[in-house]
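F.,

This is the one I mentioned.
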């Protein structure tokens, strides 16, 4: 039916730069950038330290990682939640944490059972057995061999396995007089820009059918240049596929997801790498968190279920009778699946720009009601209840009006009435969500309004003791 389900793009090329999956375990995310293996102001036992740099745009937790020489010496990091390297930040580990005795280094974490040879030795950083970074210095053959000074990587993006990319710090004294820049940019780096800033990630159409290709756009800004921008997406919890994003004007990039099947659930995120090899993700903790959408050929079964244009009482039960604030529209999910209604618009049809938009994260479960009052402070009702800005649209006319429920420009449901809106009671659907429009008095109901409750029977006012509540049971 749709052979493009197997469609993929540039997976092998891009996967080496913007890594999907378990991002914190990707080699190069954390870089060994400075080593003090031979302090002079204090003893080696007190003054050795190692600096790490987070090259990504998201924090990385080192809990459970190991630092060592790759052979006999190894220490498992157990920081109890404090071993997190900030995005584009530094983390200094050493043998002794007392700044009055370690040469004046403020350690982020003290390790044990690891010593740094003054001649040749190695520093190996691993996460779950995967080597994230390693440096093997060689007693001055190609690497620096300083005493009383650190050896520094000359550029955070340089290959730190090459001795020529390291130099001795002879310009930056710290603490007791040794030289180095623990916890700060190395002397040779100069000013370091931050990682790319990704924002305004969105897809269009918002609610695609199985015939729609979906465009994913993002604004990506950097103080240098973007070398790679990638869209990662997966269908139904499967493996992430990678699509290159291309510039489309200004700082905006775009990629396309091909048409998929009705009912498919898509998760996606954006990854960007700049010319300093700094990486950012949106959402920042992707792939743990993602953006997404569902492919739907049929309109969701969300219906306008009850409308009150002529409240004669304190319908929203906030203690104030108000002709606009007590008006309400109730919607109902007559379908079998939960529907995300974030951004859907509910209003009358003659108030463009004044529609009520459901907040992000709003969803309605099968058989659930959601009510929008014109205003006030309704608090007694079960479930999700919202208020507009004092009136719904420009106010619901008692003698004739139309209310609409719209999803991304597509009309989901509407209801039009005439003079029946002027009867001091709601207009209701019986049965909920699917039946014809009628009024409580025509159905023999002992109530005039039933926000957040079925129209099939029962009163929403039986738990209230105010005189207005009691009156409403009998005025029909």
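My design for it:
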């Amino acid at each position: 039916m749709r052979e493009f389900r197997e469609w993929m793009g540039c997976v092998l090329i891009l996967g080496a730069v913007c890594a999907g999956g378990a991002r914190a375990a990707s080699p190069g995310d954390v870089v060994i950038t400075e080593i003090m293996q031979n302090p002079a102001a204090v003893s080696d036992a007190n003054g050795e330290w190692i600096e790490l740099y987070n090259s990504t745009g998201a924090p990385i937790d080192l809990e459970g990682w190991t630092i060592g020489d790759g052979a006999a010496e190894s220490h498992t990091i157990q920081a109890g939640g404090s071993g997190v390297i900030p995005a584009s930040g530094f983390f200094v580990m050493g043998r002794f944490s007392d700044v009055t005795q370690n040469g004046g280094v403020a350690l982020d974490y003290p390790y044990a059972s690891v010593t740094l040879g003054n001649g040749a030795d190695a520093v190996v950083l691993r996460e779950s057995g995967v080597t994230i970074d390693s440096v093997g210095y060689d007693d001055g053959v190609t690497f620096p061999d300083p005493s009383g000074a650190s050896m520094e990587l000359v550029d955070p993006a340089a290959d730190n396995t090459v001795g020529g990319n390291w130099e001795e710090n002879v310009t930056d004294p710290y603490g007791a007089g040794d030289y180095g820049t623990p916890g700060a940019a190395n002397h040779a780096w100069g000013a370091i820009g931050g990682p790319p800033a990704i924002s305004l990630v969105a897809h269009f159409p918002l609610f695609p059918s199985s015939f729609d290709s979906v465009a994913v756009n993002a604004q990506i800004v950097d103080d240098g240049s973007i070398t790679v921008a990638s869209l990662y997406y997966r269908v139904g919890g499967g493996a992430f596929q990678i699509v290159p994003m291309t510039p489309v004007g200004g700082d905006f990039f775009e990629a396309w997801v091909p048409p998929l099947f009705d009912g498919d659930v898509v998760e996606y995120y954006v990854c960007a790498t700049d010319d300093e090899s700094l990486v950012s993700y949106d959402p920042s903790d992707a792939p743990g968190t993602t953006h997404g959408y569902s492919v739907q050929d049929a309109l969701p079964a969300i219906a306008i279920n009850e409308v009150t244009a002529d409240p004669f009482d304190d319908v929203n039960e906030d203690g104030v009778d108000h002709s606009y604030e007590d008006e309400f529209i109730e919607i109902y999910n007559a379908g079998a699946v939960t529907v995300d209604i974030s951004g859907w618009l509910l209003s009358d049809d003659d108030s463009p720009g004044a529609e009520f938009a459901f907040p992000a994260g709003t969803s309605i479960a099968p058989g659930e009601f959601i009510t929008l009052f014109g205003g006030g402070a309704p608090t007694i009702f079960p479930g999700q209840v919202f208020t507009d800005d004092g009136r719904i649209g420009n106010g619901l006319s008692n003698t004739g009006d139309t209310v609409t429920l719209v999803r991304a420009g597509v009309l989901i449901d509407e209801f039009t009435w005439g003079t029946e809106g002027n009867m001091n009671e709601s207009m209701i659907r019986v049965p909920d969500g699917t039946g014809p429009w009628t009024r409580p008095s025509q159905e023999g109901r002992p109530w005039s309004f039933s926000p957040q409750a079925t129209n099939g029977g029962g009163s929403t006012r039986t738990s209230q003791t105010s005189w207005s509540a009691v009156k409403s049971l009998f005025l029909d």
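The domain at 194-294 is CATH 2.60.40.10 (Immunoglobulin-like).

Talk soon.
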